Every structure is written in C-alpha cells, then in structure tokens.
Amino acid sequence: MKMRLLNLIKRAAAVLLFAPAVAMAAGAVLHLDKAPVSNDPAALQHGAKLFVNYCLSCHSASFMRYNQLENIGLGEQEIRDNLMFTGERVGDLMKIAMRPAESKVWFGVAPPDLTLVARQRASEFGSGADWLYTYLRQFYRDPARPTGWNNVIFANVAMPHVFWQLQGEQIAKVTQNADGTTSTALELVKPGVMSPAEYDKAVADLVSFLVWMGEPVADKRKTIGTVVLIFLAGLFVLSYALKKNYWKDIH
To answer: What average pLDDT does this structure show over 21-36?
Structure first.
C-alpha cells in the first residue's frame, strides 16, 4: 500500500514538474525577426523622439527621468525644447496624465509601462527587442476589431497602430499549409509617408531606445565586467606563479 502511494506521489510530482514545459511546447510558435539594436547616439535620440511623440501619450516610462536622456547625448535645453510638452521639470519621471482606471475603461486594458518592456518580452523565441521589432511592423487592417487594427504576433491586441501614417496600411492574407497549419503574409496596400526600409529603420531606432531605457548602464556594466575579468585573469597568473615559487623546493 505504501509503495503504491509512493508511486502515485512520484507520478503526480512528475506531471507537475513537466506540465509547464508541455504547455509551452504546445503553444503557438512565434517567428521573430532579429532586431538591429544600435547604441549609436543618433539612433537612440531618434528613438527617444519617436517614443515621446507616439508612445508617451498612452504609455508611461515611470522608472525613467527626462534628465537621463543626457546620457544619449542630449543637452538639458534640447530635452526641454523637443521632448517635454507639458511643463514638467527636467528631473521628473516620464509619467502620463491618464489614469490607469480611465484608460482601462477607454481601451479595455490599461496600457503597460514601457520602461522595462524590452526585458519583459524576452522569451524562448527571441529577445524582447526581437519581439518589439517584429510586433511594431506586423499591424494590419482588421474591420472586426474596435480599433480597426490587428497584429500577427499579438492577436486581438487592444493597441491601435499608432504608426500607420508612417508605415501605411497592410492587409493579412492567410494561406493553408500542406501540414494543416496556416501562415499569414502581410501586403502593403496603402503606402505611408516612409518607405518600408525607412519605417524598419525608424522602428529599429525606437526599439534601440526601449532597450537602452530598460538598462541605461548596460554598456558601463559590460565595461566593468570586462575589466574585472581581465583583473582576475592577471591575478590568477600571479597567484599561480607565487604558488610555483613557494612549492619549488618541496617538489
């Protein structure tokens, strides 16, 4: 009796252990494009401009202060003149006036804070930057949706396509594959003010800014880590030489 009970417990534990992995494997596979993330100050500044003009009206970046943008090469007066429109102080957090409760009523869901979105969206399919880069380029017209827009990798998303004037309008064409699965291809039917290459570059700049905003000290951290590893390697060589000197008479 005890053995049967023990076996049942083992089986239940195995099911609980592997259930998340099985569920993940059974989920839809995301095909993400590789994001060309850049640390170039010009790209980050352009991304900051796009973020403030197109995203900051609904999405906050409440863990980021405006004066942190000086770290991507912007001066305080440039930040005031070009990126601040409601009279905030340059040391204020990048918050919005819209309240979460009100936005939930208007959009059905409160728009998330975007400070850490590039890190939150990382998955087994790719980095958070890859997800954002693909997502912002795969909106298409869908009259069935309240906003008139849908997205290939985020089905029935509540967010409208705020960049449609830049990208233009795409429609989705669904085809049935031989293995029974379906695939969706997008076709640009109404060009925007940007060419596809220009729009892809703009999205890459915005994603680069979102990646930077998620960890502004990433480059400094990597530099410190490299210096520490070089120091430890040198210390190892000196320690090994000292050890050999101490033990040479014994050996």
So the answer is: 69
